[in-house]
Amino acid sequence: MVQQVTKGIKISVETHFEGTFYKDYKIQYAFGYTVTIENQSKDLVQLEARAWTILDALDHEKIVAGEGVIGKKPILQPGDSYTYSSGCLLGAPFGAMSGYYKMINLETHKSFNVAIPTFRLNAPFAMN
């Protein structure tokens, strides 16, 4: 698990390998990840958007950005946490993801970015 705190918002990420399959005659490696967003600040905040950089061992880079996470824009009271799971496909058995969440302080109406720590995606059969 990797963790990072930015402006009182703690991000924790756990990953797992889900398997391989073929898509368009190319092998794909499926990975899942679970993110917990914990509001350790004293402010009421809301997640508005996310931006990811996904990189695989073949140096393919994909940028993914959009509103909310899995179709939701959770509001977090101080001390609250929100957990969700998602996944990605890579063209190689190794890779990494990083990015940020755009949050808004609902008391001051100021937006700020919260770093998502870089986390590795590794297929266990490909490791030493």
TrEMBL record:
All residue ranges annotated as the ApaG domain in the record: 3-128
Pfam families referenced in this protein's UniProt entry, alphabetically: DUF525 (PF04379)
Domain of life: Bacteria
Alphabetical list of InterPro entries matching this protein: ApaG-like, ApaG_domain, ApaG_sf
Family annotation (PANTHER family): OS05G0170800 PROTEIN (PTHR47191)
NCBIfam families, alphabetized: PRK05461.1
Name of the protein: Co2+/Mg2+ efflux protein ApaG
Species of origin: Bizionia argentinensis JUB59
Taxonomic path: Bacteria, Pseudomonadati, Bacteroidota, Flavobacteriia, Flavobacteriales
Gene: apaG
